[in-house]
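Long-time lurker. I teach an intro course on protein structure, and each term I like to show students one example going from raw sequence to a predicted 3D structure in token notation. This year I'd like something fresh instead of my usual example. Would anyone be willing to generate the tokens for the chain below so I can use it in lecture? Attribution to the forum is fine with me.
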Amino acid sequence: MKGYKGTNMKIIGKKLYLELIVASFWYLITIILLSIKLEMYLNSDLVYLFVSLVNMIGLLIIIKKNNQLYIFDFSLMSFLKGILVAAPLTIYTVYTVLDGIYEGINDFGSIGMNKQQFLIWGLGYFIGAGMCEEILSRGIYLNIFMTLLNGKRKVLLSMCYSSLLFGGFHFVNLFNHQVCVTDVVGQIIYSFGFGMLFAAIYIKVKNLWVNIVLHSLFDIGQSIYYECFSQQLESNTEILGVKEYLMVCTIICFITVGLSLFIVKEKNTKTLFIKKKGMSY
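-- Reply from a regular --
Happy to contribute to a lecture. Here you go:
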């Protein structure tokens, strides 16, 4: 990293690693402890929304303290560019949302929630999956690794490290008693691939709102039929079989990693996210 050597770089590095540890600890503690405690008294959608709000507030405090609120800078042009850059993901996401709604109406006639329940459910995904996971994984992790790493492979390594953390943190879904272990293992595998893809999109357009919108809509598309219409969760392992499910997750991981490498292959990444004084690279 140009411009930072010796003591100054060590101080910056320690500060950023501390931020990474604090943000990770906050994320895990909030989701695990708060969810376990509150699920005894509230419905799961309300719990998820409340936990996500608490989680987001904590993450916002962390990035504000480190003068990183610029990650929320919005540009309509870069947002539209991001939607186009992520065209395969955008098309698939829109398809799954519309298909889930169509199949749900076709099978059940109407949504199995009232307006208030549906709003709570949707906000939970937007704040939990969209805001919290993207702030943590791309807003904090990816920025930190891009600042601290050096060399020609720093972009690829930063994408990999942030995606490993992003995928690994999905182990918290083990605390959901309705999800089997194999489903979570598969989710960790393909989440690494999607982490690479979301990292590539962020690197390309530098607009976190693209990630937030696509990520939340992607998760909604995967869940809307089962959670809003049938209201009966089905295990992917039971539907496909253990080996078949893990194979599908692995294939998805390879495809998304391939897309991510294609997106960033021509990108000049010598200057990127960190705008704080003394931390550009």
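Some talking points for your students: The mean pLDDT is 85. Residues 115-148 form the longest helix (34 residues).
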